[in-house]
Design brief:
disordered N terminus, 14 helices, mainly alpha
């Protein structure tokens, strides 16, 4: 592993103990991820429960409040960066246009993959495991060629567009546990740019389309996604493709609304509009996800973690759900922008 640790305030390498702590955390989370992957492949019902109904429901809240923590310990990021840490990467730099294209492909991949949860992944642990392995392999291959996080973590990863949308006003900046020195592999760096958002970098048409699709389309897409059943038996191509109808309908509605608004507001209000759409997206997610986890979902047992329908009054869960949604609107829209980045930028490489 290159370098020592990081000073919490400056990002300077100064504490081997601190970096050791992060390495331990990375190893623990990586092993937990490997354990979930093992379950997905060999104990599919348990793997599906752990991955889709425990890990994934926690992720959006973590993205909103402390995204730097996730970026430091994400198992796919750790895997992708192994070639770089081992000194095996060719350390190529992506051009701005290349990065914009990767970001756009990541957004499109996100919108293609997520509806397939209803037709494949939510009920098929092996398929979910293969999906994770495929992304890990792609990440590793890219890590052998490109510098640090540029190609996968800040480029092609389908989750990264959501990170940029939800992570615009995090609670804290944590040390960057991967990059020993900043080599400007991504400009602007999503990890070390304060209040980064999808529209923070509009250098090319690809960046602008990426920001439009994820900011404007995600709230409606989420709403539509929760109005589709998990298909446990696919008997026709219509059943397979039908899972896209409601998500794409919702996507188009909020995308058009966002497009109209963005064309008619002053530039100084664009960041606030992005924050509103981010709050709409994450709040919509938990508006449906929390009830579904505990047996009160609108689609029966889809997404069920623990059935409390006969033991917990519905109004209690309603209060919890509403409170969570209010929290996200406060956090992303009402709360003052604190000019914090996801992680502290390390010293620049000379």
């Amino acid at each position: 592993m290159p370098g020592a640790g990081f000073n919490l305030k400056t990002g300077d390498q100064s504490s081997s103990r601190l970096v050791l702590i992060w390495r331990i955390l990375q190893a623990i989370v990586w092993l937990a991820g490997a354990g979930i992957l093992f379950c997905l492949l060999f104990f599919p019902p348990l793997g599906v429960l752990l991955f889709w109904n425990i890990l994934i429901p926690v992720a959006p809240a973590l993205f909103v409040t402390a995204l730097g923590v996730w970026r430091n310990v994400c198992p796919l990021a750790t895997t992708n960066l192994l070639p770089r840490h081992a000194g095996l990467s060719k350390r190529k730099r992506l051009s701005v246009t290349q990065l914009g294209k990767l970001n756009l492909i990541g957004v499109i991949a996100f919108y293609i993959i997520v509806p397939l949860r209803h037709s494949i992944f939510n009920t098929n642990g092996v398929a979910t495991g293969i999906l994770i392995i495929s992304m890990a392999v792609i990440g590793i291959v890219m890590g052998f060629f490109y510098e640090w996080k540029s190609a996968w973590c800040s480029g092609l990863c389908p989750v990264h567009p959501v990170e940029k949308l939800y992570g615009g006003n995090v609670l804290i900046s944590v040390p960057n546990a991967h990059c020993g020195k900043c080599r400007n592999c991504v400009i602007p760096c999503p990890d070390s740019t304060p209040n980064i958002q999808p529209n923070s970098s509009a250098k090319t048409i690809y960046h602008r389309i990426n920001g439009l699709l994820i900011t404007g389309g995600l709230p409606g897409f989420i709403w539509g996604w929760f109005h589709v059943h998990d298909e446990r038996t696919i008997s026709s191509i219509g059943d397979f493709l039908g899972v896209y109808e409601m998500p794409l309908l919702g996507f188009m509605i909020t995308l058009v609304i966002y497009g109209i608004l963005i064309m008619n507001i002053r530039p100084k209000f664009e960041q606030r509009l992005t924050s509103i759409f981010a709050a709409l997206g994450v709040s919509c997610y938990y508006w449906y996800r929390i009830p579904a986890l505990f047996g009160f979902g609108i689609k029966g047992s889809d997404g069920l973690l623990l059935n409390l329908r006969n033991t917990l009054p519905e109004w209690v869960l309603a209060v919890i759900t509403v409170s969570v949604c209010i929290f996200f609107f406060y956090w992303l829209v009402v709360r003052k922008q604190n000019n914090k980045s996801w992680s502290v930028r390390p010293q620049y490489s000379k």
